[in-house]
Amino acid sequence: MFAGFTGAWLGLSLLKFGNPVILDQLIEPPDGFWEWVFNSWPVGWGYWMVAGLAIAGATLIRCSVAAPRSLVILPLRATMLHFAACIVCFYVGLVALSRVEQMTWFWMLLLAGFVWMLWMGFGQHFGGLESTLQMIYQQPDWRQLSPEYLKRVASTRIFSTLVYPNALAGAILLFLPMLLGRVFRMTARLANISRGVLVGLLGYAGLACLYWSGSKSGWIILLALGLVAVVRLPLNRQVKLAIVAVALIAGLAGFLVKYSDYFRRGATSVTARFDYWRAAWQITRAHPVFGTGPGTFSIPYKQIKAPQSEMTRLVHNNFLEQASDSGVIGFLAFSSFIIGSLTFLYRKSNPDPVQFCVWLGLLGWSIQGVVEFGLYIPALAWPAFLFFGWLLGVELKSTTPG
Predict the structure, then answer these.
(1) 388 has a pLDDT exceeding 60
(2) Given 138, 231, 327, 362, which residue has the most CB atoms within 10 angstroms?
(3) Residue 373 DSSP label
């Protein structure tokens, strides 16, 4: 029951809590059945769900965790309510979910939420965005809507239930590897053709939505994850090298063909990110101990940004965001937790392929954090911390003498 509740909560988070927490004041509670079904929900509702998750898992919690103390203690530095929810998710995964033996309902309900998200993406690509835009233009007060929202809807890049296309790419990078691994295992009793069709359909849907999102970093990160997975396969070294070479050539060639016009136009988003990162470093130097406060990057950035630079609320880099907002200690704590956990889990990883796929998804989420702000999106941050805790708990439980 606890596993099913957790899976349902993760799936629901993908669909309803895909906006950055700093924009939560703009999210109106749904009014009417269809708004409940299709609109985002205030993140405060998610906090109550996280509290319920912690209460539900209390009966499974055991305090004797044989995890490295440095990794277990590092998340305690967070101060914001959203970060507090991330901390709860981490420890629920570490000391409660990792002790659940039957995870079928967890994966089934999480898969349902993920498939719904992909279905919404398909709908946007095949006419949904255009229909929404035409409906907006028919409203007499459409010019009062946020320019960012109008720009997002007018684009051909899909975003599904997330705040914008790169956030959708982050969700796919995080969840697709683990769900492909789980579906492959769940269909073990089926004939090879049926099994291949089901796994292939999920893979195609995820890759199609990633492609339609137009996320350039998502494409490169996915290629990197694929190469890491190939290295893990029990194949001859020469075969691995051949696969890696072909994948690199094909992947980079496709990337250059797809985005050649973008680079000819000057790669404006790349230039903007370098400006955000320069400003974050400048702010960190001015406030090295405590930073400027969680989620406050936009305040000093407005004062120091170049006149031609685009305004932003976040750094588009989870690590530099911590340096700017929380100071050097916050940066070191967050970076040490992410890098240390990934390194420890890879070195101690269980031969279970599903667990490796979970680690692969966390690697993708972490790498994207260098160019995006997934830490501030509940639909991405909450499950990431839950899976970090779950993997640590499962891996150490399997290696601890009974």
Answers:
(1) yes
(2) 362
(3) -
pLDDT value for 263? 61
| Residue 152 domain-assigned (yes or no) | yes
CA distances from 5 to 2, 53, 96, 139, 296 (A): 5, 8, 13, 40, 34
Give per-residue pLDDT as tens, 298-321.
888 888 887 777 788 889 999 999
Average pLDDT value for residue range 259-274: 72
Number of alpha helices (DSSP H) and beta strands (DSSP E) in the chain: 17, 0
pLDDT tier at 246, thresholds 50, 70, 90: confident
Residues 220 and 345 in one domain: no
Q: Residue 122 and residue 288: Cα distance in Å, rounded?
A: 45
What is the span of the domain harbouring residue 234? 215-254
Buried b (16+ CB within 10 A) or exposed e, 226-265: bbbebebeeeeeeebeebeeeeeeebeeeeeeeeeeeeee
Q: Identify whether the C-beta of residue 268 lies closer than 8 Å to the C-beta of residue 261.
A: no
Distance CA 114, CA 135 (A): 27
Together in a domain, 233 and 364: no
Token pair in block for residue 27: 């999210």
- Judgement on whether residues 204 and 223 belong to the same structural domain of the protein: no
Per the rule left: phi > 0, alpha: psi between -120 and 50, beta: everything else, 214 is left
Q: Domain for residue 327, yes or no?
A: yes
Tell me if residue 57 falls in helix, strand or coil. coil
DSSP output for 333-349: HHHHHHHHHHHHHHHT-
Spatial CB neighbours of 125, under 8 Å, sequence gap ≥ 6: 158, 208, 209, 212
